[in-house]
Write a structure and sequence with these properties.
356 residues; alpha/beta; 60s Ribosomal Protein L30, Chain: A; Alpha/beta knot; eight-stranded parallel beta sheet; four-stranded mixed beta sheet; 13 helices; 22% strand; elongated; transferase
Length: 356
């Protein structure tokens, strides 16, 4: 039954008094010591009576889940505090989630392409020169502790531009660089791509020496050649594959010279030479056995100097189509000079005649 009365505040208060029949069926609450608790080991059955406690029943602070389900089946009023199970995921929603998950999977082809566009550069002088010339190309870096004082500027720049770098021990740097001759530092960089012959010609002056390498691919020779080019002011290097100049070994051997050389690419090597000839350049080849002795030759101010691989030199086609051929005389005790050494001798003579 319900009794209604007003308290001191004047507000209406409502009391709900449990019926006598229901009170007799309930025992004392063991936690509070007051009435209202359910007799231990008893629960409501489908017919509204009691059933014995099962062995797998667990003690609960109130009615269990089965009891709430039974109440719902009997049509009793549902509590606003009852737990509502989550609706099953629709097939379309599950498919959408799977599709979203696959979007985060990186395509292996993308990784391979990215790695092909990157190179590892190591060696203290090479990395210092690279940072001064093109810091934006750096992707990641590793240092050993002893070189970090000399790379303070690079470290500050990388931190400010959120470029990842790691200070590691020698063993870790060997793994990162792929060589024991890392010089205490290694960068992962984005490779430069070569420029076209026409782009080079658009900015060339009346005095220009371009070096052309036919089938020269040894990275140590390429590094030595770039070092000589930087020393004698030769900035353009016509090569079939511009990425060869971006190898770690080549850049390290160049000791900073790689940052002063630009790779030039034509449709083919022969097409590139022909384009330079039409632009007024003299095509000069070298030979160990025939040609004008270098120190008796007059090297033009505007020329393309062509060198080939050490074993066979330039191809017959390139040699026959040249405007001029020179030879570096010597004792004859060896067949020829190393291609990087020959480059230094030839460019040194061009510098003496046209720059000195």
């Amino acid at each position: 039954m319900n009794d209604e009365f007003k308290g001191k505040s004047g507000k209406v208060k409502v009391m709900y008094v449990r019926g006598d029949d229901d009170s007799e069926q309930r025992s004392q609450n063991p936690r509070t010591g007051k009435g209202g608790g359910r007799p231990a080991g008893a629960s409501r059955g489908e017919g509204g009576g009691r059933r014995p406690a099962r062995h797998d029943d667990k003690p609960r602070g109130g009615r269990d889940r089965n009891e709430r389900s039974d109440r719902g089946d009997r049509g009793e009023a549902a509590s606003p505090w009852r737990t509502v199970s989550r609706a099953p995921v629709e097939a379309s929603q599950s498919a959408y989630e799977n599709e979203s998950a696959t979007k985060h999977v990186v395509d292996p082809e993308v990784i391979r392409r990215q790695r092909a566009e990157e190179a590892r550069v190591y060696g203290e002088n090479a990395c210092q020169a690279l940072f001064q010339s093109r810091p934006e190309s750096i992707v990641r870096a590793w240092f050993i502790q002893s070189v970090t004082p000399r790379f303070k500027e690079a470290l500050r720049w990388m931190a400010a531009n959120r470029k990842a770098y790691h200070v590691v021990d020698d063993a870790e740097l060997v793994k990162a660089s792929g060589t024991e001759h890392h010089g205490g530092v290694c960068f992962i960089i984005k490779k430069r791509s070569g420029i076209s012959v026409q782009t080079w010609l658009n900015k060339a002056g009346e005095e220009d020496c371009v070096l052309a390498l036919e089938d020269v691919g040894n990275p140590h020779n390429l590094g030595g050649i770039m070092r000589s080019c930087a020393h004698f002011g030769v900035k353009g290097l016509l090569i079939q594959d511009a990425s060869l100049l971006e190898s770690g070994a080549a850049i390290r051997t160049a000791e900073g010279g790689a940052e002063h050389v630009v790779a030039i690419s034509g449709e083919t090597f022969g097409d590139g030479l022909e384009a330079f000839r039409k632009a007024g350049y003299t095509i000069v080849t070298t030979s160990s056995h025939q040609g004008t002795p270098l120190y008796k030759a007059e090297l033009p101010k505007k020329m393309v100097l062509v060198l080939g691989q050490e074993r066979d030199g330039v191809s017959d086609t390139t040699f026959e189509n040249a405007d001029m051929s020179v030879a570096i005389e010597g004792t004859g005790n060896v067949e020829s000079l190393n291609v990087s050494v020959a480059t230094g001798v030839l460019l040194g003579e061009w510098w003496r005649q046209n720059k000195a």
